[in-house]
Amino acid sequence: MGMSRTERAAKGYMVNVLQTVLYMGLQGLLAPLILKLAGVGTLGAYGAVMQVVAYYSILDFSLSMTLSRHLAQCHGREKDTARFRAIFTTGRTCLLFSGLASAVLAVAIAAPFVALLKLPAGVARDATYALYLMASWFILRTPLASYDAALMATQNLATAHTITGIQNASRVLGSLTAVLLG
User: Fold this and answer.
1) pTM, two decimal places
2) Which of 25, 41, 74, 97 could hold 80 in an S-S bridge, CB 3.0 to 4.6 Å?
3) C-alpha closest to that of 89 among 143, 137, 48
């Protein structure tokens, strides 16, 4: 027999703490590295781009939590299997459309937003590209977000938090790689 609900919750909690500490540590190392390797302008541009990501995260968080809540309410009931699938499909579609809308908005505001920052030409170009890259991520992460909500609803917390940890570490390491490549 599998783990009890309490064991799954405890394991999920521990993985969540580990992935949060890892993300905070990586993020804490990133800012000084950007400052040292690329300068104040690039650090400012990075901070501005991350604000766009933060706004998207708020929207995504509310939709993902709503999906997770509705999936959890019908999980484990045999008669609700079809309902679980229907909610999952509808939620995934909503996440996709919100990701598409966010991507279109990010692309539309990229140039004016970067112009507002009055960055040097090279940094401005890179910040615009970063916003375009984020726009594609808003769409591409739809499967991860929807399956993450399903994992949370079915109390597979450790797996869900492991996926979140990999996403966060990848984002930080991707940012660092971009800075190192110029």
Assistant:
1) 0.76
2) 74
3) 143
